[in-house]
Structure formats: C-alpha cells, structure tokens
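Field: COMPLEX_INPUT
Field: COMPONENT_COUNT = two
Field: RESIDUE_TOTAL = 597
Field: MODE = joint
Values follow.
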Amino acid sequence: MRLLTHNMLACNIKGVTNGFPLGIDATRVETKEVEMNPDFLKHIFPKLRWEAFRAAAHSLGIDNLPEQVDSNMLLDEEFLQQFHHALLEVHLEEGALICPETGRRFPVSKGIPNMLLNEDEV
Amino acid sequence: MWYLCYFLHRLLEYRLPEVESLAKIYLEGDPAALKEVRWKQPPNCHSDSPFYYINLPSEDIARFIASRSILVKGIFEVWGVESSYEELRLAIENYPEDRKTPYLSADSTFKVIVDCFGKGLSLKEQTERINSLDYIPFQGRVNLKSPQHRFWLIESDNDIANKLLLPAMQKLIFFAREIGLSDRSILTKFELSRRNYLGPTAMDAEIAFIMANQGLVRRGTFVYDPFVGTGSILVAASHFGAITMGEDIDLRVVRDGRGPDCNVWSNFKQYDLPLPIGLIRADNNSPPWRSSLKEIFHAIICDPPYGVRAGGRKSGGRKLLKGTKDPYIIPEEKRKDHIPSTAPYMFAECVHDLLDIAARLLVMNGRLVFFYPVARGECYEDLYPKHECFTLIASSEQILSTRWSRCLLTMEKTAEYTDKHAALALQKHIEFRERHSELLDEREESLHSLVFAPSKIDNGLNDKDALPKYRGKHV
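Field: COMPLEX_OUTPUT
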C-alpha cells in the first residue's frame, strides 16, 4: 500500500466523525522504484491532505518533506523527486492502519489494506 | 474532410461511440473541432452497415483513431464509390488530380488490396479486379511487403438472399487510399485463455479495450474499478497508459489469488504493464474513502455484479440485515481475526452506490463506464439509472441470450457533486438498508430468475418463430 492510498482512506465506522488520517503501525516497509509521471503528481497534489501525508511519511522514516507547500514547488525538480518517492515508491507491505478516534485496527497484509467493516460497525 | 470508416461487422452498437470517444481523446481542448466530427452513410445503407463516412479535421486524427480502435477495420480517403465498375472508372477519373498525383508518382511504391464485405474472393477474382484498374495512371513500383501507399478496392456483396443480413444495402464498390488500419493483434496478446489468473467473470479482452476507449483512457489517466476482481478491465486500461486502482470485497481474489505467481499483480506483470497503484479490500456499499476526497479519478470503469454469474456482497451481516438476528456487539477478545459475514447486495442498490461514489470521485468531464443488464425488449432508455451529475453519452447493447442483454453505458460527469447530492444518497442508502429483507424477497423477479427460469411451454404454436430473425429480434 502506497502513501497515496493511505491519504485517500478513512475509518468510516458508523458514528465515527474523525476517521482521518489513519495511524500507521508498520511491520514491513518496502521501497520499489517506479517511473515518475510529473503530470500525475500535479493532478494528485491539490487533492492530498498534505499534513496527513507528511505525518504518514514520517512514520515510515521519510523526513525530507517540507511542512509548508504550494503548487509552485511542483516546478522544482528536487521537490518533485521527494514527493514522488514518498507518494508512490514507499509501500507498507505488512502492518495495520489505526482509526484515530476508536483505535480500530485495519490490517494490511501483502500490501492490501483490509477496510471491510464488521457487522456491528456499519 | 470526409473519410470512409470501414468497420468490422461485430458489436455493432459499440462501433460509432468508440470512434467518437477516440476523436474526443485526440481533440481534447478543441471543442470546436470536435463539433465538426460528424457521420453520414452512403445512400440506402442500413445503420448496421460497415460503411460510414466520418468528417475529420486531419489525416493524423484518422490514423490515431484507426490505430487505437478495436472495431474499425480501417479509415480511407475515397477516390470513387459507385455500384458498378464502369461508373467507378468515371468517378475515379473525375476525382481531383491534386488529390491523386502525390500518391501515384514515379518514385513511390504501392499495393492494391481487394476486399469484399460478405464474401471471400478467390485469388483469380482479385487479380481480375486489380487488372481492371489499368486506367489509373500508377507511375510507382509495386511493393507487396512494405509499400508507401496502399489502395483498397472494397466491394459489398449484394447477394443477400441467403444472408442473415437485412436486404438494406445496395452493392457498393469503393476505391480508396488507406490512411490507417486497426491493430487487433493486441486481442491475441491479451486473450483470456492466455491470462495467468482468471475468475468466473473476467472481462473479455476485446470488450475491456472498448471500455477503456469509452473511458477516454490515455497516458496518465487515473482509472478506478470498484469491482476489480482479477483486474481484467484495469489490464486493458493500463495497456493504454492508465494509472490504475482497484477495490474488491473478496479478500481471496484481491490479495491471495492462486498463489504468489498467480494473482492480480501477476496479470499485469505478464504483459510488462505497470502494476496498479493500489488494491484495496473494501465494500462499495460502505466505501472506505475520507469524506473530503473528491474529483480524483479521471475514469471509473467496471462491471458491477448483477447476480447472474456472480452476485454482489455487502457488509452488515447476513442475518442482521435479514432481521433474523438482533443487533449485537462483537466481544473485544474476538475482534481480532473476526471474519464479518456479508449479505447479498441487490443490483439496484449496487448501481445507486456506484453512481453516487462516481459522481463524487470523478473529475469534471470524467467518465463512468459500466455494464447494465436488461431483460430483452425494444426500449431500454427508461430503465437506465440516472444521476443529476451525469449525462448519458452512449449505450450499446450486447445480446447474451434470448432473454437478456447487457448494455455498456458511458456517462460523463457534467455537473458538480454537491452536499445536496450527498444528503439524497445517504437517505437512499438508509432506505435500502431498512428495506433489505423486502428487497431480498423481490429478487424472485430478478435477473437471475429471468435468465435461469424454465421456459414456458408453448407447444410450438408460437407463430412468432416463423418470422425471420435479425440480430436476435423478429423483423
């Protein structure tokens, strides 16, 4: 699971109002190189919640993302590379996502987050 | 300029929308030029005829359309079209010289291809027809392997007495210069019988490519399939350069497959395609997206489970929703490794959820492409699901049996998703939940029983059967 997916997901258990961002409990993290697509990064950038993205990257050991960002920074090759790396090259392979409100754990195994809710949660 | 668009004679209702979608991809950002893309037919042609004229702004777009299309055979510049060879000669001679000479010059190489729609021609018949063109002043040399210019002599067979075609086409003979041909070799490469990991409802490669074309997929398009299964639709989208994401409720399919080398990922590796950017196990009925997530996907392309070969499932507990069990809380010590039971997911509810999530997650002008099953009849328009945010672009029927068809619906997001839409969808969601068991009973009338119920006994007295049939319908 990439951090892009993490930034899109939330805990939607019935009654939960603050299910985003999900905490990360990482057991195994992998890095896989992929080709960069600047247009895609530009499309995704305004859709992201940056603070949550930066915090998630931090919990996987990536500390080079700036705190404040704006779309002009996408013209900077170095920033684009860091952004690309954190967004698409780092994978949470084994671990769990944790709801910030209830502490409910959504397991991640073989890189697939299991977001299915229990009978009493929908 | 008007070009001849010569189609393959299959998936007839899918042909024009596919070409229109490809034109839209090429002419993105030029709506004025897109408006000029128009169709017309040779006189007396049935709408099922493989011959259409299309008005396109350039040869480049014609080449692009032909190269990406699955259902176009080729696109041509017509030098003459008549119903006899004598008239054809006059027409070619009267075609403007300045359009002809550049392709007939002495330093060029060329080839003539003879094609007949509805009949195979022997080599002798082909040679005779080529030789009859001796009045065209070809100066160049013949090169059968890699000529610079290809000319086509396309005939239609008007011997319709023994054909299952409507007698709606007069004989046509075209002489035309080839602009571009389609490349259907990808269908062989991607055919399901060679696919590593297959499920019972894996999408046929040809249809999957057409769906990707309908979704306006090009390099960098972000495509989402909420019923990803073995990934057959995303494989096609990925081939055209899409960045893909998939979701499925079945963990065994989406995570495990049949082992480490036979799963959704391996279906992409098999063709050296980029892997999906994310696969998620979740329920389309209680989607896992954060509420602020909007307008992120360029296209949502899917085949929702309509309960004939595979039924949909949703979370909430089978017995709970049916009302045979009182609500309960799972004890804390049993939460870990608890496997929640899933309940049947009614198709109407599934489509409602799909339209709502698509209206929210698609960018403006993004496309939703999906199959919708219908009982066979004359008019489907009123049955199609509607949403204020979507405009129906195309609907194409594929007949599956005498009883049912599926229609490929292409919708475009033409209005913003607002809080009003969200509130309405939530209300409907609660309604579906409350009426779950009632709707479950109604399923007796559903598509599944329509498809599999025993046929009524008619003692062979059904005089309808005596009428000739065309495309499965009585005429």
